Amino acid sequence: MLSIRPSSYIYSSRRYLSTPSTHTISPNHSIYLSRSTNPYFNLTFEDWLFRHSPTEKPLLLIYRDEPCVVIGRNQNPWKEINFLALRRAGNPFIRRRSGGGTVYHDLGNTNFSIHLPRTSFDRHATAQIVLRAVRSLGIDAHINERNDICIGKDKMSTIFLPLMACCFYVSGSAYKIVNNRAYHHGTMLISTRLDALGDLLRSNKESMITKGVASVRSPVCNLQQFSPTISHEAFSDAVVRAFQEEYNIDQEPYIAQEDEGATSIEYIREGMAELPSWDWAYGQTPEFTYGIKKSFGWGDMTVEIKSKHGIILSCSFSHDGAGSSSVDREILELSKALEGKRYGFVDNAAIDARAARGRDGDIWEWLKTAMES
Amino acid sequence: MLLARHLRLLVGRPALRSHFHTTVPAWASRKVVQKFKLADIGEGITECEVIKWSVKPQGSIQAFDPLCEVQSDKASVEITSPFDGIVKELLVQEGEVAKVGEGLCLIEVDEDTAENSADLASAEPPKEQEAESYEEPVGVRRQHPLDPNYTPDAASTASSNVLATPSVRYFSRQMGVDLGKLAPGSGKGGRIEKKDVEAYLARGTVGGEARVEDGKDVVVELGRTRYGMWKAMVKSLEIPHFGYSTTLDLTAVHALIPSLNTHIPPHLLPPSSQPAGPPVNPSALYPAPTPEPVPSPSQYTRLTYLPILLKTLSKAMHQWPLFRSSITPSPSASVDSSQSKAKPTLTIRPHADISIALSTPTGLYTPTLQHVDRSSIYALSSQLKHLAHLGRQIPCALTPNEMPKRGGTLTVSNIGAIGAGEFASPVLVPGGGVAIVAIGRAKWVWDVDSGDGKGQRRLKVGVSWSADHRVVEGAELAAFVECWRAYVEAPERLIAEGV
Hints:
- Chain A is α+β, with helices and mostly antiparallel strands.
- Chain A is 32% helix and 23% strand.
- Chain A contains 13 helices and 16 strands.
- Chain A has a 6-stranded mixed sheet, with helices on both faces. In chain A, strands 12-14-15-16 form a 4-stranded antiparallel sheet. A 3-stranded mixed sheet of chain A has the order 4-3-5, with helices on one face.
- In chain A, helix 1 (39-52) crosses helix 9 (266-274) and helix 11 (325-338) runs parallel beside helix 13.
- The longest helix of chain A has 16 residues, at 232-247.
- By secondary structure, chain B is of the alpha+beta class.
- Chain B folds into 3 domains: 22-141, CATH 2.40.50.100; 145-220, Irregular (Dihydrolipoamide Transferase), CATH 4.10.320; 239-269 and 293-329 and 344-496, Chloramphenicol Acetyltransferase (2-Layer Sandwich).
- In chain B, 24% of the residues lie in helices and 19% in strands.
- Chain B has 10 helices and 19 strands.
- Chain B has helices at 111-123, 130-135, 166-175, 194-207, 224-236, 251-262, 305-319, 377-392, 474-488, 493-497; strands at residues 32-37, 47-53, 60-61, 66-72, 75-80, 85-90, 97-99, 103-109, 241-249, 325-327, 346-348, 354-356, 358-360, 363-365, 368-369, 410-413, 435-439, 443-447, 456-468.
- In chain B, a hairpin with an 8-residue loop joins strand 18 (443-447) and strand 19 (456-468).
- The two termini of chain B are 30 Å apart.
- The chains are: A alpha+beta, B alpha+beta.
- The A-B interface holds A 55-56, 72-74, 97-101, 117-123, 128, 131, 135, 142-143, 145-146, 173-180, 211-213, 284, 286-287 and B 41-43, 49, 51-52, 64, 69, 71-78, 80, 94-95, 145-146, 152, 160-161, 221-224, 227, 332-335.
- Chain A: Keywords: ATP-binding, Ligase, Nucleotide-binding.
């Protein structure tokens, strides 16, 4: 059970560092624990630490987010996310700055981020640190060739989950590398709502063909399924300890809050504003094409939409209907009207009012729903 | 493995040739277009997709400005420009894939960068400055971590935290000034400018500070390959080594070489050395079999001792299954591999795979020659030349094709090519087979035992073995070496056995 504690209290025999909120936060500590659950803050804070901490020092950051979906730097949100489910749940999605695939965050999922000098960065070594932490909690996990942490090859697990055919993943990772620094960050599923995860990340657009990185879908499970006492705090502690041992650090963890001390920093403010902006969230989408079909009363219609950087490049219709010239003319106008608009953000006002009526009305409704799903 | 910095694969007469790369001499007022290649980012990444360019052609760019962002599986990498200059052409577009070593873009750089490289070519005397020449094969820029010519070892004095353009770094190095002392400079973002260095020099003589390196300790990080060596050597501590050394008599082999050289198959010879065709055409009736000519880096004009030693070694390996075996790797690559309970087994291969220790500008590698028993001495010589060529490239052009996971069962280290060493204590690493041999430099000695007791001048070479005592007995190794000697000292046997 976690109760809100002022950060200067002693917690499980560990003292934490913090600054009075009037001073700006320093990037020179070795271990940070973020008490904020705002995903925009946490991702920006991570990026700020990445760019401003001393290049030679290893650094660890641990944080949790309110429910949201986080996609990789070069991914296509429409391909990865079921937007109908996302809107129903009322959660946002965020594009992060590191590569890799799509993950679901909520308070049952703990994120870790290990920053190292680029030349001594080794994916396997950093994955080992987290693995050691998990194992120290009494869970028999291991690492696969992609450096993901999973459970499920030995007898113990088959007792709990007899239907398990193979590995279940408890963690996903991504990396970012710049001139002289690199980080490995990842998720750890402790008590996440797996049903929500499944819903939001279920791809419902097989006919969307996209450049960029596709997620590798894997079966997941929570650490709590194997050890009911595991919590965010226990896992954080274990990771901090493993990190301190690996790099011989005896500094105490520093508690970071989303307060004046942090938001007074311009880089952080601007980063938090950039993440939800259309330019970053949607405008970074690589090229994709989406081909869909529908049968109307008067014939079958096929559409192919091409988009790049979130803008519709072209929209080509074809149908096998009885060839009414008005339909042909209207779809020609519709496709012209759509060119240059933002994919998924075209409202009725942007399309010529005439096109919204009549036969075209059906077509446009159908297209609009498809783009927004 | 032995530490050896320079690329040497020729046994026998290793005159210390300097591998000296010179650039096209630059005229004082010309601009030069440099190709910026996708450097080895590390992590075993061989290709990346370009996600985004931060510059457009004809845009100007400064060193350390963001250039582009690339993505490989789960890693997103930001690349900054190594030069000041104007971007001339983007060679890989957004959404396309660039391979490591391929050109990313062309940047037109200022004249003084090119001029400096021409100065270096004339200033340094070739022989002892060989080490220097490897640090900057093309021009004298360095320090940009993703510059394809960057060698982390070379960045020992100027710390990577100090910002300065390559031309300023060169200038400061010429003047013997440590940039660390000048940080931060007066330029953009705290960059050190040339005038900062000059100002420092003007002060320096008054202050009486030493001009050349001022004797402070410097901390250097291990580059990726050297760190890989570190890790491999730590693992090698698990292997109980024992050593055994002897000398082999190469006189008979030496006598063969001139004759073998005149008969190098035409497809392995460079075009300039091709012999004139026979006066009567053997292909008049029907095309005679002509193998495909090999690419020019694999062509050669002289044989050395190494391919002959390898071939004879493979003959001995044929008779000794123990030396064609390797420890079967344990199935799971998990954390506690040392705790696997099953008894170890040896996997014996039908053919002789021999790994060669290759020291290159980018580090120490061990590519493998597969099925040496099936290759002729001529073919082996060509393969060795090819490996040397690949290793010499920066970034290293050796691929998993040349360095398969499964490695050889024996490793050969031709340390005699570097210096006049006779014996050594090589180190085995896991995956390097059951034994390793270091071959010293051949030298002519007076052997009192030969020539019917009157003594004779013989060519001898020292060979030092280290073997894994978990699987090889001392007596077995000694007997195996004697078997090898019986081939080396009587190479004519190869004729009767059908090479």
